[in-house]
Write a structure and sequence with these properties.
4 strands, 9 helices, alpha+beta
Length: about 210
């Protein structure tokens, strides 16, 4: 497999964690988002959205969108499971994961922040926007798992929820959010980051890290 990504991309970070948890290896191909390498014609031929990650499967098929890739990995390599068998629990974990991947992450990603700058918003206001998006979304996530047993988001082992949470908390800190307001999320993060699968996927561990 070949994973196209960028060390600081939280979406690519999710997939790196999933690959590590599944014990799968992939060739990592970096695309520097700040230099616009994701808009190169050769990459757009793989992923017309010009986003990372993109996974090239061994059979040659191309997969995009981080959660779709994670679910494909779950279905093709079910051990260890990232989703439980119980349909209700699966739905709750998917809902938490999508709260991050679909609601928080998109409105504070590089493309949106660049557009805000193009529209004339001052850099201070751009950063305030990103911090607001993280703070509001994570506050809701804190409540979503407040009654869930730990130490991970949904129990004693990591799920798809944890591999979405850890990269998003990294984003929040980068934008200056006081994450101490989210003790339940921090509990899950601490449990996850103690595992080599999470630690080895961290941005600072990647060969393209700056």
């Amino acid at each position: 497999m070949r994973l196209h990504g960028y060390f600081r991309s939280s979406a690519a970070y999710r997939v790196r964690i999933a690959l590590n948890l599944k014990g799968l290896s992939a060739e990592h191909l970096p695309h520097h988002l700040r230099k616009g390498e994701q808009r190169a014609p050769a990459y757009l031929a793989l992923n017309p959205q010009g986003l990372v990650p993109t996974l090239e499967c061994d059979a040659g098929e191309i997969l995009t969108q981080s959660l779709a890739i994670v679910e494909w990995l779950e279905e093709t390599h079910p051990q260890p499971p990232l989703l439980p068998k119980d349909p209700l629990r699966r739905a709750k974990i998917r809902a938490f994961s999508q709260a991050i991947a679909c609601d928080i992450h998109p409105v504070q990603n590089l493309k949106v922040l660049a557009r805000l700058r193009q529209l004339g918003l001052a850099e201070e206001k751009v950063k305030e926007w990103a911090a607001w998006a993280n703070r509001e979304g994570l506050a809701a996530c804190e409540k979503l798992i407040a009654a869930e047993p730990g130490p991970f988001c949904f129990g004693a082992s990591p799920t798809m929820a944890d591999l979405c949470l850890v990269p998003q908390l990294a984003n929040a800190r980068r934008f200056g959010v006081d994450v101490s307001a989210f003790p339940r999320l921090l509990q899950a993060e601490a449990a996850a980051k103690a595992l080599p699968a999470f630690a080895d996927a961290a941005p600072e561990r990647q060969s393209d890290a700056e």
